[in-house]
Write a structure and sequence with these properties.
alpha/beta, Translation Initiation Factor IF3, 4-stranded mixed beta sheet, 35% helix, rod-shaped
């Protein structure tokens, strides 16, 4: 059990709270008696407080509400989606603009972008071209995205990571 309830509470004095209860400090015996009169449970919700905080409530209902809160918190957390955009070292303007439009759409949807230039065979000799291309890409997206990681070479790929700017 995640919470101590009723006779399992070890504290001698507790702060009692609840829906139809006046918040006050009382002995554990008084608190148990008060909970018993209302036909409810005494649930220790903050054992580290001084004195520990106990709530007079229906324990099953309390557990249900805790689960519901956890679900809500989980639903609110955003899942980060990583979209990849691939360039060649000699990508022409039309292809570049086409991929730039896609990148803008991805950033507006809240996705991160991992853009990379893939070097095939001897094209690795043009790594400066690849870096210039990625920096231009980052510059074109600077209004809606923030560069998380500058271009760096990983094997035959030069990678840059861009995340969406926080909406104000």
């Amino acid at each position: 059990m995640p919470h101590a309830i009723n006779n399992r509470i070890t504290a001698k004095v507790v702060r009692v709270v609840g829906d139809n209860v006046e918040p006050q400090i009382m002995t554990i015996e008084e608190a148990l008696k008060a909970a018993d009169e209302l036909e409810l449970d005494l649930v220790e919700i903050s054992p580290t407080a001084d004195p520990p905080v106990c709530k007079i409530t229906d324990y099953q209902k309390f557990l249900y509400q805790q689960k519901k809160k956890q679900k809500e918190i989980k639903a609110k957390t955003t899942k980060v989606v990583m979209k990849e955009i691939r360039f060649g070292p000699n990508t022409d303007d039309h292809d570049y603009n086409f991929k730039l439009k896609h990148a803008q759409k991805f950033l507006e949807e809240g996705s991160k972008i991992k853009a990379y230039v893939f070097f095939k065979g001897r094209s690795i000799l043009f790594k400066e071209k690849g870096e210039i291309l990625l920096l231009r890409f980052a510059q074109d997206l600077e209004e809606i995205g923030t560069v998380e990681q500058m271009p760096r070479l990983e094997g035959k790929r030069m990678i840059i990571t861009i995340s969406p700017k926080k909406k104000k």
